[in-house]
Amino acid sequence: MLYSSAFSCSLLLSLAATVSASPVETIAKRKSGTAVPIHKHRIALSNDDGVFDIEKANALTVVTHNKHRQNLLNIGKNLGVDKLNIVRI
């Protein structure tokens, strides 16, 4: 009987130590940090009423083309234009 009582006591103590050692997150702790979004916010290509907005789509296409154009200019400047495999039409 003494063995099982000692075993239960050590089990309770080890359980209490485990529980007290585990971190407890409170709402105040979670709100104190800065939230970092995992993905970028995408631009909605529709109006508030759900209709496709062609002007937003055209503006986004221009931004994307300029981004890739600048990337090719930077590669040409850094590596040389001969390293680019560009087909001129």
Q: Over all CA atoms, what is the radius of gyration?
A: 30 Å
Give the helices and strands as they follow along the chain: HHH
* Basic shape: elongated
Structural class: mainly alpha
Tally of individual helices:
3
Give the rounded overall mean pLDDT.
76
State the separation between the terminal residues, measured CA to CA: 92 Å
> What share of residues are in beta strands?
under 5%
What is the number of beta strands?
Answer: 0
- The helicity comes to 55-70%
Q: Sheet with the most strands?
A: none
Runs with pLDDT <50, length 5+?
Answer: none
As for the number of domains, it is 1
Describe the structure.
- The protein is mostly helical.
- The protein has one domain (24-89).
- The chain is built from three helices and no strands.
- It is elongated, with a radius of gyration of 30 Å.
- The relative contact order is 0.05.
- The model has no long low-confidence stretch (mean pLDDT 76).
What is the gist of this entry?
It contains three helices and no strands. The protein is mainly alpha-helical and 89 residues long. The protein is elongated.
Topology of this structure?
Elements lengths: L1 H20 L5 H6 L21 H26 L10
Comma- or semicolon-separated keywords:
89 residues, mainly alpha, 3 helices
